[in-house]
Amino acid sequence: MSTLPRCPQCNSEYTYEDGAQFVCPECAHEWPRVAAAAEETARVWRDAHGNVLQDGDSVTVIKDLKVKGSSAVVKVGTKVRNIRLVDGDHDIDCKIDGIGAMQLKTEFVKKA
């Protein structure tokens, strides 16, 4: 099985490498290898149920979460609006009413 990407124009599986680009022998389409690598590495964040998350979405907490360094708890059903997705250990930067700025993991939220 070839690890080369399919042609983005005609979806042919017979692509080949030619220097710094890929070439499709069926439709003669050429595209840079860098663009193909960028498509493969694009990160997609998903909630606990598999829904795709985007910046600005609203999410709901699905589990009681203890706030580190405090006696406060983020309760189940707490709605968080206008999230920002970031790379790292915790995927979501947000502000929660009554608690303040927080970082959450996507595995503990669902899209609202």
TrEMBL record:
Gene3D superfamilies: 2.20.25.10, SH3 Domains (2.30.30.40). Residues 3-32 form the Protein YjdM N-terminal domain. It comes from the Bacteria. InterPro entries: YjdM, YjdM_C, YjdM_N. Pfam families: YjdM, Zn_Ribbon_YjdM. Residues 46-112 form the Protein YjdM C-terminal domain. Belongs to the YjdM family. This is Zinc ribbon domain-containing protein YjdM. It comes from Tahibacter harae.
